[in-house]
Amino acid sequence: MSRLGKRPVAVPKEVKIEQKGGIIYVQGPKGKLERKLSGRLIIEIKDNELTVKRNVDTKEDRALHGLYRALIFNMIKGVSEGYKKELEIQGVGFRAQVQGKTLNLQVGYSHPVNFPIPDDVKIEAPKQNLIVISGIDKEKVGEIAAEIRAVRPPEPYKGKGIRYAGEYIKRKVGKAQATTK
């Protein structure tokens, strides 16, 4: 049996979970999420605990068991606490600012890069070299952070670019000076 899949998920008091027609709805103080479930799994909710069970013990069902338990756990955590990712910008003249529903990035190109902000994600730039992405959907927050980082990924020689907060960039040595005889 899946080690992760058989663990029950604690449901906080302020979170409401409902299952209708193969779709699970999770609602909490931060918002509402929904996800289509696999027909191979059974969801049981008892005494503020949610358990995911499977009908058959095939390899595919075992994989789905742990996956859906983790997805439901992420949904519950998202609507109760939310998710947040921070990006750092390094480089001379590199900066970011939020202008309405767009994130304006000036990261060494001949033009500023305008990144549209989706409705279900909140993006802030408290400092010129820091971007904070927050939302209730863990997948969406991570995807937006990856797309922003891809605008100018950090390069290994000087370390300039957009990186996750705390990300370590392995640095390379530049060209060696030619010696003359």
Tell me the CATH topology of the largest domain.
Answer: Outer Surface Protein A, domain 3
Helix content: 10-25%
Strand coverage percent: 35-45%
Instruction: Give the biggest sheet.
Output: 4 strands, antiparallel
Per CATH, the superfamily of the largest domain is Ribosomal protein L6
Intertermini distance: 70 Å
Pairing-aware structural class of the strands and helices? alpha+beta
Give the averaged pLDDT, no decimals.
91
Question: How do the SSEs run, as a string of H and E?
Answer: EEEEEEHEEEEEEHE
| Shape, per Cα inertia axes | elongated
How many helices? The count is 2
Number of strand elements: 13
Sequence of strands across the biggest β-sheet: 11-12-7-13
CATH top level of the largest domain is: Alpha Beta
CATH level-two architecture of the largest domain: Alpha-Beta Complex
Oligomer: single chain
Compile the SSE list and pairings.
Blueprint: E1 9-10, E2 16-20, E3 23-27, E4 32-36, E5 41-46, E6 49-54, H1 59-80, E7 83-90, E8 95-99, E9 102-106, E10 113-116, E11 121-127, E12 130-135, H2 138-151, E13 161-164
Antiparallel strand pairs: 1-6, 2-3, 3-4, 5-6, 7-12, 7-13, 8-9, 9-10, 11-12
